[in-house]
Amino acid sequence: xxxxxxxxxxxxxxxxxxxxETMPTDACQWYxxxxxxxxxxxxxxxxxxxxxxxxxxxxPPVQLAxxxxxxx
Length: 72
Ligand SMILES: [Zn+2]
Hints:
Blueprint: E1 7-11, E2 18-22, E3 32-33, E4 40-41, H1 50-54, H2 60-65
Antiparallel strand pairs: 1-2, 3-4
The structure holds zinc ion (ZN).
């Protein structure tokens, strides 16, 4: 299996600012502060982390195991 992609571009749903972030491989990131408007982003219902909700690439556990494999 290919190694997961670790860089994801997060787009703020409030102001539209996009920022490339490197994802941790061993943990899900639940909060993310937008660097432009400083809104605190949280995952949408059903998503495990902010990368799955707002990123161009889902988080590494999801890439490897699919939507059901992340975060227990
Ligand atoms: Zn923002």
